[in-house]
Specification:
The complex is a heterodimer of chains A (241) and B (93).
Chain A: H1 3-6, H2 20-23, H3 31-41, H4 45-64, H5 70-87, H6 97-115, H7 119-129, H8 162-168, H9 170-181, H10 185-196, H11 201-208, H12 212-240
Chain B: H1 15-26, H2 32-44, H3 46-62, H4 72-85
Helix pairs in contact in B: 1-2, 1-3, 2-3
Classes of the chains: A mainly alpha (241), B mainly alpha (93).
Chain lengths: 241, 93
């Protein structure tokens, strides 16, 4: 694991809030994150609430991929927040803030998972879900003949309003959340880092110690499972109209 | 589902390959030749166009989904820890 990103940044001079704007040399911080960190270092509780609200759900989901149950996941996330609080004065911006937080979480969750002796299970997941099977069900494509490899059962187009309608539907949201929660850890953490937390591909690869090609294989398989959950929901919804 | 009437006659890449490369294509991660072949295929294939659009829609939706909320007791505990740990303002010499 990349130690600079994954856990605590290397010990260095503690930067005071006043020194912050010039103290960040890393290119990974957005302007929004820079101003948030300035507020955090000034002790702004509102800024801390913002930070927690923004990332807590994703951290819980990611932790659940590594530990036995929700209670253990909440403990891991609480430990992560405590480490963030303690590490903020030394955070130098060599990765984005969210990458740093997710790195701490992954480190702690994996550590807890190993202590729970669940690592063998994760290896099994990886062997089943790493890069060999196709993302889309092969039976949706012609197997033989002139159209071999082309759609036999193509997806039905969504209209422009479909995403908003999905977000407004409690059942659709539940279907997507269920699809995310059911993902094996290797797919779930990629999806959360990239699509929920919005971490750049390169930083996600460094965190997970995988290649970009591997990242996109996993990411696409995870997205496809969520897309398929939506497709099933929409097919069911059409039948009930 | 019915057979897609707009199936393409692009020999270079199949729908099955497009479906596998959809996320890499959306992030422009595929190599240049694949990006071009994908774009040409998508222009001619309604099924793949729908599929890639749906993957893009899912990608955009995921960041907007509500996640598990913070337990009130944990929130209080974290606020206390944050307040206790905050950097004191610099003192004048």
């Amino acid at each position: 694991m990349n130690s600079a990103i994954a856990t605590h940044e290397s010990p260095g001079p503690i930067l005071s809030a006043a020194a912050l704007p010039g103290g960040f040399t890393g290119p990974s911080l957005s302007q929004e994150e820079r101003s948030l960190i300035v507020r955090l270092r000034k002790g702004d509780e509102g800024a801390f609430d913002e930070l927690v609200n923004k990332h807590h759900g994703a951290l819980i989901r990611m932790a659940l991929g590594h530990v036995a149950d929700r209670e253990a996941a909440e403990e891991v996330v609480q430990d992560t927040w405590m480490a963030v609080i303690q590490g903020l004065p030394r955070f130098e911006g060599r990765s984005s803030l969210r990458t740093w937080i997710c790195g701490i979480l992954i480190h702690k969750a994996k550590d807890r998972g190993v202590r729970e002796k669940r690592h063998a299970t994760f290896s099994d997941f990886e062997s089943h879900d790493d890069d060999h099977d196709e993302a889309v069900d092969p039976s949706r494509f012609h197997q033989n003949g002139e159209w071999a490899g082309h759609w036999a059962f193509p997806p039905q187009p969504w209209d422009e309003q479909t995403p908003e309608k999905l977000l407004a539907s409690r059942q659709a949201v539940a279907a997507m959340q269920q699809a995310i929660d059911s993902l094996p850890p290797t797919l779930k953490e990629v999806l959360i880092l990239r699509d929920i937390e919005g971490i750049e591909a390169k930083e996600a690869c460094e965190l997970l110690q995988i290649t970009e090609t591997n990242l996109y294989v996993r990411l696409h398989r995870a997205r496809e499972r969520v897309r398929r959950a939506v497709e099933i929901y929409l097919e069911g919804a059409a039948l009930t109209v | 589902m019915a057979l897609n009437p707009a199936q393409p006659s692009v020999p270079d890449i199949t729908c099955r390959e497009v479906a596998e490369w959809a996320s890499a294509y959306l992030d422009a991660h595929a190599d240049d030749a694949t990006q071009v072949r994908m774009a040409l295929h998508l222009a001619a294939c309604a099924g793949c166009e729908a599929y890639v659009s749906q993957i893009a829609a899912v990608r955009d939706l995921l960041g907007r989904l509500p996640g598990p909320a913070v337990e009130p007791t944990l929130r209080d505990r974290l606020r206390q820890a944050f307040s206790a740990n905050r950097t004191p303002p610099p003192t004048k010499m």
